[in-house]
Design brief:
By secondary structure, this protein is mostly helical. The chain has one domain. Helix content is 48%, strand content 0%. The protein has four helices and no strands. α2 runs antiparallel to α3.
Amino acid sequence: MFKKGSKLYSVLFNKCPRCHEGDFMKEKNMFKLNKAFQMHEHCDKCGLKYMIEPSFYYGAMYINYALTVGISIATFAIVTLFFDFSLVESFMPIVIALILSAPLTIRFSRIGWINLFVKYDPKVIKSKESEQ
């Protein structure tokens, strides 16, 4: 499930969707907010251009929306069931959870979006190595 060649491997380990070797984001630490959302232009291993077309990552907003709705529902369920918060009292924990998870959801949504369109190809690295 988390082995090289699966889409989850690429998403969870910040790897190129085509070769699973090169890094997708420039900064590995997602909590360095000044650099957390900067992506490489190309994969340094296979040469895949990450910005496939202008405005390509607008579609990642749908994945981000789904992730934030899931986090909101989970936070609401936890604070109402375990801490007996009222509806109004539960808004603050939800907002805090969304602010803290924003770097994670934005990165996962971008990597997840490109993984919908690019397939893993183990032959790409081998052909790159044979060229050199």
